[in-house]
Amino acid sequence: MKIALAAAALAALLTACTTTELQPIPGSITYNGQPRTKLTKSPIGSSFTHLFTGDMGQQVYEIYVIQPDRSLKIVSRRSQNAFFPDP
After folding, report:
1. 2 lies in a domain?
2. Is residue 76 domain-resident?
3. Is the dihedral of CA 25, 31, 34, 39 positive or negative?
4. Where does the pLDDT of residue 37 fall: very low under 50, low under 70, confident under 90, or very high at 90 and above?
5. Cross-strand partners of 34
6. What is the pLDDT confidence band of residue 3, given thresholds at 50, 70 and 90?
7. In the chain, how many domains are there?
C-alpha cells in the first residue's frame, strides 16, 4: 500500500515537472512573440543557444528547440551573476 502511494506521488510530481513551460523574459528571443522570420533551413527538433544580459545584470543562457510549426520553444534557462560568478 505504501509503495503504491509513493509511486502515485512520484508520478504526480513528474507530471507537474514536465508540464511547466518556461515563459520568455526581457531579452529572450520570443519575448515579444515568435520571430518574424522562420528558420526554414534548420531541421525540426534541432536546438540552439542564446546568451544575453538580464534585467539585474545577470548573464542568462537559454536553449531553444525548433518545433514542427517552425516556432521556438525555450527548454532550458540558466542565469548567473555577471559580477560575482559561482565558483
Report:
1. no
2. yes
3. negative
4. confident
5. none
6. low
7. 1
